[in-house]
Amino acid sequence: MLSIERRKFLTTAAALTAGVATQAMSLSTSNDQKQLVHHVFFWLKDPVSVEDRDKLVDGLRTLAAIKSIRRLHIGIPAATEKRDVVDASWQVSELMFFDNAADQKTYQDHPVHQAFITNYSHLWKKVLVYDMNEL
User: Which residue, 33, 55, 82, 99, shows the most beta carbons closer than 10 Å to its own?
Assistant: First the structure.
């Protein structure tokens, strides 16, 4: 009976060790494979123009045709509590997710993105980009 319990314990311990080792290997080798998040803020030349804001939003929606974009969110500042740490000075934002930096580079060079810049850059006075890798 004791040898059966010992065998069961050793089998379980070996399975757990293999699982932990596999997870540790995937964590150490996949840091370069974490999603890249691309967050862009736009300040319009005419910040009170709903027409200009809507044109820019329409232009941003064209970017969804780029296959390397995994998710695309477009938004405007939320009507939340005014606090010193909240910057609501921008008019439109896009938030994109890519599988990796190479896919984000594909997006940057893509003809649809280049056309977006050509066709809509006259609407903004400032653009600020924050890129990050998920942990």
Answer: 55
